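User: For my dataset I need records formatted as: sequence, then structure tokens, nothing else. Please produce one.
Assistant:
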Amino acid sequence: MFPRFFKWLICGRIQKRIWVSIGILILLAVLVEQSLKRAERSGWENWKAKWEAKGEKFDIASVIPPKIPDHQNFAKSQFFAPLFDHDTDSPKFNKARDRFDIKTASSLRYAWRKGKHRDFVVWESAFYESDLAKLADDLKRPHCRFNIRYEDGFAAVLPHLSTMKNAANLFALRSAQRLSKGDTTGAWQDTLNGIRLGEQLQTEPFLISQLVRIAILEMNFQTYWEGQINNQWSAEQLTAFQQIFQSIDLLAGMESAIRAERNMINHWFTSVAQGGTQTQGFDESISSLDFFPAIFFYSNQYQINLILTEIILPGIDVSNHKLNVHQFKKMEEEIMDLKSSFLPFRHAIALMMLPGLDKYALKVSQTQAALDQSAIVAALERYRLAEGSYPEKLTALTPKFIAKIPGDLFHDQGLVYRINEDDSFTLYSTGYNGTDDGGEFLISGESIDFAKGDWPWPQKVAE
């Protein structure tokens, strides 16, 4: 019987019907795929149009800082211009990149949050004196815009970041040396210059740039705290510190960086749709997208934009100086839902491209809280110098010593403040978890767990 069936199967008439049927199935599959792809694309474009009508922009050009004249541009400093004027393998580039690279002694690490002074170590700074003087003069330029190839998206090269961090480290080291010798004016000026150096990155719309900005601020909190705890700053110096601390808005930098991250992701999608290189700017793991079904392409772009636009950006309230932690936790929940959904592979692009913003939000908020507390502490010290003691309540500082008292980033109850029995003060934020844990950091091993516990201003020197 099988030979008769096989003979029937391979006859021309049946073979023709089989191949016609296969062709029809393939055609139907293609038509269904194209129909679904058009539907996905239409859904993404309709959503995008709705937000564009509200004023939102999704292209990479909208997040590129405007160009500025060279004479006003700190980035045209003799120390940083070569990083963008020469090839990355050239001797001039390498010289500029490594110019301020020195090894920092472990005793000069920054642990002010734990109430730890830097042990004084002799640092021979004569080699850098001329460079630091020129840097200080360059910092008088009013603007900064590095010649970054923003059109390269995630593949853009940012060679200036490590060099700026190293230069800021030099200012921080010299400020430590000067403060230990009683040269408060020199230490004060170096600390201000270190902060100003980091603030050259304030308009640079990359997450990594904002993190380097934060790292530079952390260096300079150390000298400021040491001078404050030892009553070394004058009223005039405290006023200058207070002004610069109050002028820094990390939430605004965070908002612009997340918006830029989203728009660079869209730039990548556009490049792929036009036949560009899929893996540009990403690690090798994303090369698997060469086999990604086109049917899910636009749905991934939609998911990424939806999460960043409707969940994350509303959680950053720049005008009211607040951060909604729940929005970042909600993003993590959305990602978990994608991972556990039916056929999670269809969300592969979104899962690989969505940045881990919860840790970033924690880093930004802990440093912004330190800025806010630093400004209040400067006002408290000015009050003490004028009145002989700290005030019973923070409201006594306004308006003479501070125009507006910064509140807690996470709620409307404000920072906790009280006078201690030894006439010192306690000042703290209830932190990322939003609960009052008695004004103490939670130490896990050698590190502070900023996701738990409170965020106090250290008023005692650790032994």
